[in-house]
Design a protein that fits this description.
- There is one protein chain.
- This protein is of the alpha+beta class.
- The chain folds into 2 domains: 67 residues, no CATH class; 123 residues, no CATH class.
- The chain has 9 helices and 13 strands.
- Strand 12 and strand 13 form a beta hairpin.
Length: 216
């Protein structure tokens, strides 16, 4: 029975474009939740699990429950984050120097001029692509490794630190792979602008970004 269900969900039948109709969804719901969680879901790949997740509200919640557990998330590479969970985020690098047409800068500053990043620039760097960390220390290590200094230790590029609060329940995050294993200490999510981003300044103060309206 489980092999048949698994084949149906994975689309491994003769019909490669199989669509799961509602009656098969209903059949799944007749199976005890513990059996689905412990016996069927562990045999499904990510694509199949996400397909099951779309079939009904009950299965949506059940797949989320399965993916909330780190032991399951580590096997498949995706974890479901609960609403109001908090992480430290490191955004894309923000430029502190840009190219300049000034002859003066060409002679004395490698053809670059200093720029002062705005709060909007910093917040946009998180929306462009942020990595989430459970540990603030690990996040700072990431910042240090991605900060670039040029001649005379002039700062060229630096990513920034923020605290992110997940505002949408069951937000799916892609786990970072550490060698052959997935690591739940480091992850990324799509649509981070749907979360609350609180930029942490170098002096330790925090600035609420109003992520849903900033980045104009």
């Amino acid at each position: 029975m489980f092999k048949k269900l698994t084949n149906i969900l994975k689309g491994t039948n003769a019909n490669k474009n199989i669509v799961i109709p509602y009656n098969q969804n209903g059949t799944l719901l007749l199976i005890q939740k513990e059996v689905l969680l412990n016996e069927l879901f562990p045999f499904l790949d990510l694509k199949s699990l996400l397909r099951v997740r779309t079939l009904s509200r009950e299965l949506f919640d059940l797949v989320n429950l399965y993916l909330e557990k780190e032991v399951n998330a580590k096997k498949i590479g995706v974890i479901a984050l609960s609403k109001d969970s908090k992480f430290y985020a490191v955004g894309k690098g923000v430029a502190h120097k840009v190219r300049s047409d000034s002859i003066w800068n060409a002679i004395f500053n490698d053809g670059l001029q200093d720029v002062e990043p705005t709060l909007a620039n910093i917040i946009d760097s998180f929306i462009a692509g942020a990595t989430l960390f459970k540990s603030k220390e690990t996040a700072k290590e990431k910042i240090n490794s991605q900060t670039f200094f040029g001649k005379n230790q002039a700062l060229y590029i630096k990513p920034y630190l923020a605290e992110v609060t997940i505002k949408k329940d069951a937000t799916l995050a892609k786990l970072d792979r550490d060698g052959l294993r997935y690591n739940t200490e480091k992850m990324s999510i799509q649509h981070i602008n749907e979360s609350c981003i609180e930029y942490i300044e170098d002096n330790g103060n925090s600035v609420m970004s109003k992520a849903n309206t900033l980045g104009k």
